[in-house]
Specification:
SH3 type barrels, five-stranded antiparallel β-sheet, about 450 residues, alpha+beta, disordered N terminus, 3 domains, single chain
């Protein structure tokens, strides 16, 4: 199974599950059984009792907790642990000295020259870390890179789209702390609330202490209910896109049928400037929303069919970004990588010792539809209910390799069973399926209850 998500700080290992090096037959998504027989509509699987009561006090507590985490980089110092900050360094050093156990390939599908790795190490200017300690804000939705380059590194010539130097995607308007600058100044290393890494220096802007206070003083927020909404300023010039998983502070004079919000743009000298942009009211929701199955299903449907993006590759979502962006709407600030997500609430249930039948029966009996995540090494899925006796999940995935070299393409956000691709298994050529690899599950609604209980008792 090639269901993979990019890891954040401290995790140098990446997993491509069940990869079959001899895969010789690509099954297009139009021929994958699950995708043709299961309704690709998250609303279809809603339980009849999916309504939940709005608790304004709890929502206020969750909002406060989310914003505290969101703005946390501005209240931190640069992490002094170089091995955590530059976790990619050992692999770069091995590549530079020809000690890497596996080959690495570039965009030309040729082996990467060790000289390139050494040049990257030199450009990182590590002896002076940290050479910055500057509060800043992302002004262009951009890639967070493990190394200061836009060039890819693949583990094999046909390794697309798994660029191992791609770490994450970070949205415009995200608070960050700039901790370091590359030798040439093209790249800066940032700490955000969910990921560390290199971003292009022209994709963020520095803030004054007054601007930091200004941004933290906003009280009303909205979140987009559609993905990739174009944002225009008062002169009707395009500024950016609003994405599912972003939050925007309400600001300025409001227009009929539009809501005005604050964004920050980069001036020629690198400083930040506030601008007002407008979103259609019908394409927004108040932040945070009350957590209920229908609201989550509607958000899933806005992303249904979106292409898969390892670590935010080409501004698309991988499995953990898909989950993270869903629950942002409900003021739940989840970690970046899949394993951290399932363990985050300390309420995970170990499923690794169960057989197929036991595991699926337990999930159906105990998981909360639309609010329970299922984890296997390198992949995360959202359980959305039971259909025809099978557990149904929504997830962003690249492919499922089964049988004798059959790669069942999923390619993005899909709804499947835990047996996806099984039609290409056989008696003499079997591969493990999702159901076999699921190791744990966690109920996100319990995390919300835990946060509100802890905050209210403080």
């Amino acid at each position: 199974m090639r269901f993979c998500s990019a890891y954040t700080i401290g995790f140098a290992l990446f997993f491509t599950l069940g990869f079959n090096a001899c895969a010789d037959k690509i099954i297009p998504s139009s021929q994958v059984k699950d995708l043709q027989t299961l309704p690709q509509d998250a609303l279809f699987y809603l339980p009849t009792d999916s309504k939940s009561k709005r608790n304004d006090k709890a929502l206020g507590t969750l909002k406060k907790d989310y914003l505290q985490k969101h703005f946390s980089p501005w209240h931190q110092k640069p992490n002094p642990k170089k091995n955590e900050v530059f976790w990619i360094l050992p692999s770069l050093q091995n590549l530079a000295t020809n000690k890497a156990k596996n080959k690495s390939y570039g965009e030309d599908l040729q082996e990467i020259n060790p000289k390139i790795a050494q040049e990257l190490i030199d450009s990182m200017n590590l002896s002076s870390y940290p050479n910055q300690n500057q509060k800043a804000i992302i002004t262009t939705t951009t890639a967070v890179r493990a190394a200061p380059t836009n060039k890819p590194l693949f583990n094999k010539p046909n390794g697309y789209p798994f660029d191992r130097w791609q770490n994450s995607l970070i949205f415009a308007n995200t608070p960050v702390l700039v901790t370091h600058t590359s030798k040439d100044g093209q790249w800066v290393h940032i700490q955000s609330s969910f990921v560390y890494g290199w971003v292009e220096s022209t994709h963020l802007a520095t803030l004054t202490s007054q601007q930091v206070k200004e941004i933290e003083s906003y009280t009303q927020y909205i979140s987009p209910s559609l993905d990739k909404i174009p944002l225009y300023n008062s002169q009707n010039h395009f500024v950016s896109q609003a994405r599912i998983g972003q939050i925007f502070p309400i600001y300025g004079t409001q227009r009929k049928q539009f809501v005005g919000v604050a964004v920050y743009v980069r001036l020629p000298g690198g400083e930040a400037k506030r601008e007002q942009v407008f979103l259609p009211i019908e394409a927004t929701k108040s932040f945070p929303q009350a957590t209920d199955s229908k609201a989550i299903a509607e958000i899933i449907n806005t992303m249904m069919g979106d292409t898969y993006g390892w670590g935010g590759f080409l501004a698309s979502r991988d499995c953990s970004a898909f989950v993270r962006d869903i629950f942002t709407n409900f003021a739940l600030h989840l970690p970046r990588n899949s394993k951290a997500q399932v363990y985050y609430g300390n309420n995970q249930v170990d499923l690794s010792t169960l057989n197929r039948k036991q595991k699926e029966s337990y999930i159906i009996a105990n998981a909360t539809p639309y609010q329970t995540i299922l984890w296997l090494q390198g992949h995360i899925m959202l359980y959305i209910g039971e259909y025809q006796g099978k557990a149904i999940v929504a997830h962003s995935a690249w492919s499922a390799t089964t049988g004798r070299g059959y790669e069942n393409m999923l390619g993005g956000v899909v709804i499947t069973t835990l047996y996806v691709g099984d039609e290409h298994n056989s008696l003499f050529a079997k591969s493990e399926l999702l159901i076999d690899k699921v190791k744990a599950m966690s109920n996100i609604s319990q995390l919300a209850t835990k946060i509100t209980t802890q905050k209210d008792s403080q």
